[in-house]
Amino acid sequence: MRTLWIDGGWQPSEGGGVRQVENPATLEILDEVAEATPADVRRASAVAARAQRDWRQLPALERAQMLHEAAGLMRGDRARLSELLTREGGKPRIENLDEVEWCAACFQYYAEIARSAYGLSIPPTAAHQLNFTIKEPLGVVGAIVPFNYPLLLLVWKIAPALAAGNTVVVKPSELTPLSTLRLVETALAHLPRGVVNVVTGAGAVGEAIVDDPDVACVAFTGSTAVGTRIATRAAAQLKRVNLELGGIDPLIVFEDADLDVAVPGAAWARFLNNGQVCTSAKRIYVVEPIAGEFIERFVAHTRSLRVGDPMDPDTDLGPLISSAARARVEAQVERAVAQGARLLEGGRRLDAGPGYFYAPTVLTGVRPDHAIVCEEVFGPIASILPVKDADEAIALAAQSDYGLGANIYTRNLTYALRAVQEIKAGTVWINDPLTDNDAAPFGGMRKSGMGRELGVEGLDAFRETKHVHLDFVPERKGFWFPNRQRRGDIPS
Ligand code: NAD
Questions:
Q1: 445 forms bridges with which residues in the sheet?
Q2: Which of 158, 172, 151 is nearest to 86 (CA)?
Q3: Mind listing the pLDDT tens digit for each residue in 291-317?
Q4: Quick one: pLDDT at residue 437?
Q5: Which residues pair with 135 in a beta bridge?
Q6: From the first residue on, what is the mean pLDDT of each consecutive set of 10 residues in the chain (492 residues)?
Q7: Do 145 and 157 meet the contact criterion of CB atoms below 8 Å apart?
Q8: Quick check: is 255 catalytic?
Q9: Are 385 and 373 spatial neighbours (Cβ–Cβ below 8 Å)?
Q10: Which of 91, 135, 157, 282 is flagged as catalytic?
């Protein structure tokens, strides 16, 4: 049984409620976790607010040293953290080893840049004045995280928030809380008490964070539906939000693409983490001259993927996260087929273990208005849409209410730059899908969210700008009350 992490130690929930955490591959119950109450959230936020007063005053170098130490501790616990990530989330172990390494690297990146992220010196309007800006932390940041990259998406929030001098109250997904609890215990316990706090539980705990008077900003990654609810709630309090939401990202394969690269690249872009990635390529457009060959090779490649035990190094795809997630994907495929899509591969549950396995699936004959490409499908379903030419590919790829990422395979500069110009997306990947860079901003447009994580923008998401105006010869002020002294200045 795991309790809450508040004020640098384990504390029980006031309500006494618990929730079980299930291994989606084996259906074994891994542990029980306390369900926080609104009073627990209040307690955690008040502790975080108190701790923030000292944390923000620390020299940036001292904070940076502690964040570097955290990175080292994460790497030291990589074997166990990656194992826990796999057991609770079903992602193959090899990918979770990457996830832990990316977390450590992100901590290092923010430890470095927070020391050299400067304010501005601004030309004053009078010779005896100074104008400059300073960057200040917001206070307490509430971080609400989804199940699919439980540690990485947490670290994208807390590394910059802490580096900027904020303290945090974290809520992991109720499906994957164990890796977060282990991370705070093994890699963040050296931080001053109360700087990082974790409250576990479902949506009601997230709502309590959004409503908490000590929480100055909510950094959320998750579905567009929940993000919309959070934005509405936060707006009523004029509270800052950073929202990283769903995506229905396009991937275009132009006729000059090297299919030896584009086929496995597109399969990777769609099936990574069993299609449970916000930036998965959920609509694949292939131009007619190569569509037949692409589809044939994509189907063969899909058949070669190994679905099974995510702890096995030979496994490419593990289970889906939950019974509900699999049922949702199943219903989306059935509906697509009923609307006329052709099932070329998969489309069924797999008996790869007791858990929520589903075969990687390839659909074609999908129309641009079909639900399978207009709603987010969070599972291993590749929808391939042959298109006449580059113009049609770019036009259809650009047609979406969402705008998270977009992928392109081409060596043709005109195609690439036209796609960059016309597709509204936070990131466009050309010939290398789904590759992030800690120093480059990540985020979405339209229904994919607002704000950016990573890079300097990811640090600024957790900082206010304060303008300071200083007059060092105040007696030289040319006017003051009473106004009548300046009566002569008024034009007649
Ligand atoms: P989700 O929206 O169901 O849950 C995300 C988190 O929000 C969980 O911790 C959940 O408990 C919490 N939550 C639920 N209801 C809440 C409420 N009313 N108030 C506050 N918090 C609440 O998402 P999920 O199923 O865990 O993750 C999948 C979704 O996340 C997909 O839509 C995916 O595209 C998106 N996602 C986006 C990004 C990105 O960077 N844009 C990255 C990963 C995942």
A1: 403
A2: 151
A3: 999 999 999 999 999 999 999 999 999
A4: 97
A5: 465
A6: 98 96 98 98 98 97 97 98 98 98 98 91 94 97 98 98 98 98 98 98 98 98 98 98 98 98 98 98 98 98 98 98 98 98 98 97 96 97 98 98 98 98 98 96 98 97 97 79 84 89
A7: yes
A8: no
A9: yes
A10: 157
Q: Quote the tokens at residue 115.
A: 């020391």
Q: Is residue 442 within 8 Å of 157, Cβ to Cβ?
A: no
Cα 415 to ligand 1 centre (Å):
34
Structure tokens at 203: 């949506």
> Of the residues 35, 95, 207, 453, which is catalytic?
453
SS3 for the chain is CECEEECCEEECCCCCCEEEEECCCCCCEEEEEECCCHHHHHHHHHHHHHHHHHHCCCCHHHHHHHHHHHHHHHHHCHHHHHHHHHHHHCCCHHHHHHHHHHHHHHHHHHHHHCCCCCCCEECCCCCCEEEEEEEEECCEEEEECCCCCCCHHHHHHHHHHHHCCCEEEEECCCCCCHHHHHHHHHHCCCCCCCCEEECCCCHHHHHHHHHCCCEEEEEEECCHHHHHHHHHHHHHCCCEEEEECCCCEEEEECCCCCHHHHHHHHHHHHHHHHHCCCCCEEEEEEEHHHHHHHHHHHHHHHHCCCECCCCCCCCCECCCCCHHHHHHHHHHHHHHHHCCCEEEECCCECCCCCCCCECCEEEECCCCCCHHHHCCCCCCEEEEEEECCHHHHHHHHHCCCEECEEEEECCCHHHHHHHHHHCCCCEEEECCCCCCCCCCCECCEECCEECCECHHHHHHCCEEEEEEEEECCHHHCCCCCCHHHHHHHCCC
Both structure tokens of 84: 């826990």
Q: Identify the pLDDT of residue 474.
A: 82
Residues 6+ apart with CB under 8 A from 71: 104, 105, 107, 108, 111
Q: How do residues 430-449 score in pLDDT, each as one tens digit?
A: 999 999 999 999 999 999 99
Class of residue 55 by CB neighbours under 10 A (exposed 0-12, middle 13-18, buried 19+): buried
Partners of residue 285 on adjacent β-strands:
252, 385
Compute the chain's Rg from CA coordinates.
25
Question: Two tokens at 376?
Answer: 């987010």
Q: Is 171 in the pocket of ligand 1 (CB under 6 A)?
A: yes
User: How many A from CA of 203 to the centre of ligand 1?
Assistant: 9
| Catalytic residue list contains 244 | yes
**What pLDDT score was predicted for residue 480?**
77
Q: Which of 152, 223, 402 to probe ligand 1 with, by most ligand atoms within 8 A of CB?
A: 223
Instruction: State how far the Cα of 211 lies from the Cα of 8, in Å rounded to an integer.
Output: 23
Residue 264 confidence (pLDDT):
98
